[in-house]
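One-letter codes give the sequence; the integers encode the fold. A sample entry reads:
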Amino acid sequence: MDPVNTTVEYGTHSRSSPGDQWVGDVLVPSLFAGVCFLVGVPGNGLVIWTILCKIPQRSMTVVVLLNLAVADFLVLITLPLWIHSFWDQWVYGLFMCRLLTYIVSFTMYASVFFVTVLSVQRFTAVVFPFASNFWQEKETIYGTVLSVWATSLALASTAYIFRSTTETNGTVLCNDWTYTSDQQEMVDISVEVVFCFLVPFLIMTVCYALVIRRMRRLKFQKKSKSGKLIASVIIAFFACWIPYHIMNMLNISAASLRSSNPKMSTILENAATEAENICTALVFLSSCLNPILYAFAARSFRGGLRGANFDKLFRQMNEDSGEKVTKNLHNPSASTDLSLHNPVGSD
């Protein structure tokens, strides 16, 4: 289940809905989504522009943060269409229903994979510093970025395949799924929970447990601002996503019990339904948090929260990551890719 599926059924509530229900199901979600859009789109856009235009030499850490910003930007620009469907109905057709759901789904996968890469890279730099050169190589950087996006696009394909529109009382909704059985639904949601939550969370927990253990053993340890920032990005990400995946597990349990224990299945479904608004709100909130975290981190540079300090922040992260960046011999303005102008470790 992608986040779009767990929100209020878009278009099911109109201005004529009862007051309390209308406020909770239409007004509040619309306002919250609007704030996420207004904060997150400019914020992530600024991060993307700063890294592409101001940071010609980019470490793996900065490259990952760039791609995280791209993923967040993509999901946030879909919000105006969802907001419109809150107030009216889905008027954009089946293709757009599937496409927007697919965008939300594959950016979810990409975000969690990139956050996992940050954890693994941090682990390598602290625990195996001599092996951290692996992350400086051009092939590693490009290979990691392309692999994450390709895997995300593939795993999210079911969101496009199974998503559909439906019509209820003359109102078209983008809220239907064409699963042919409970088992198919359970498999689809289980794949998402495993690859977007259980496996990444296990990897990150192990990595940071070993990092903390290593840091405690060092008598003289340099406190890295970028290390703290990366940790805050990871913590904020999972704090926003854990409730959503718990809700997913409730839905899996409900689907598995529909035949054997309908009463318990209904209880679990109702519990998931009660939690869906807040869980989905946290999911979209996660897409606009990183620029805010970067802004507060940039306060350590003279000039406060001005965007001009983002480039200083990311340059500092290049240095703190321990990745030696070679001089860029190319024209910085000539490249607009999502990786490097002159990748770390390139000639």
Observations:
- The first helix runs from residue 19 to 54.
- The beta strands are 163-168, 171-177.
